[in-house]
Amino acid sequence: MLNLAFDTTAQSCSVILTRDGVTLDKSIQKMDFGQSEALMPAIKNILDKNGLKMKEIDLVTVCTGPGSFTGVRSSLSAARTFELALPEIGLTGVSAFEAYMEDLAPDELAEVNAVIIETKRNDFYFQAFDVHKKAIEAPQALNYEDIIDKLRNHKVTFTGDGVERFLSKPSGLSLHVINMPDIPPIAALARCGIERWNKKNLDYPKPLYLRAPDVCVKA
Predict the structure, then answer these.
(1) Among 133, 142, 144, 215, which is least packed, fewest CB within 10 Å?
(2) Domains of the chain with CATH codes
(3) CA dist 92 to 3, 51, 194, 207, Å?
(4) Distances from the Cα of 56 to the Cαs of 53, 89, 177, in angstroms?
(5) Average confidence (pLDDT) per 10 residues, the chain, 219 residues
């Protein structure tokens, strides 16, 4: 089974191609801007290098956010374009929270596992998971103090690209493991998609926006 997974929601344009769960090729371009312009050439390059056409792909796995409004929209637009052109292709969406959690090894899991994603504001995107990688609550945009209150009195593992800023001041929490990846793990995103394919539980991708876009309308 060929799975093409990609993500433009954070500070990268990431693409991976797997066959039966084994990585055939991947491209990770770290960038602050221009992810939407880089995505389609990156996909084409990977397919060309491996002698494949898009119609041969069985599953497209796309990151649904949270992240930049433009980045989320770009990934989902590309995925839906493939679906419209090739309706036989499977399509599923995976959140960045799920990808970060999937990337944790069994010995890294704690009673509570907190995924902290950078917002580039004063707050953070946050979701907590249990030791079985099941979500404890819905994702939210929260300030530092509210997250600390939720995690107090628990053994906690942290992961996500917002962890470095979040832990830049003493938290007073009981910490198990601290992971500080700078972008969502694309291989873990692909694994989440494959798991849904195997369970015949493909969720149609919907954007995970935790706040309204930053748009100024001139009078």
Answers:
(1) 215
(2) 2-96+184-198 (3.30.420.40), 105-178 (3.30.420.40)
(3) 11, 24, 9, 12
(4) 6, 9, 40
(5) 98 97 98 95 98 98 96 96 95 98 98 97 97 98 98 97 96 97 97 97 94 56
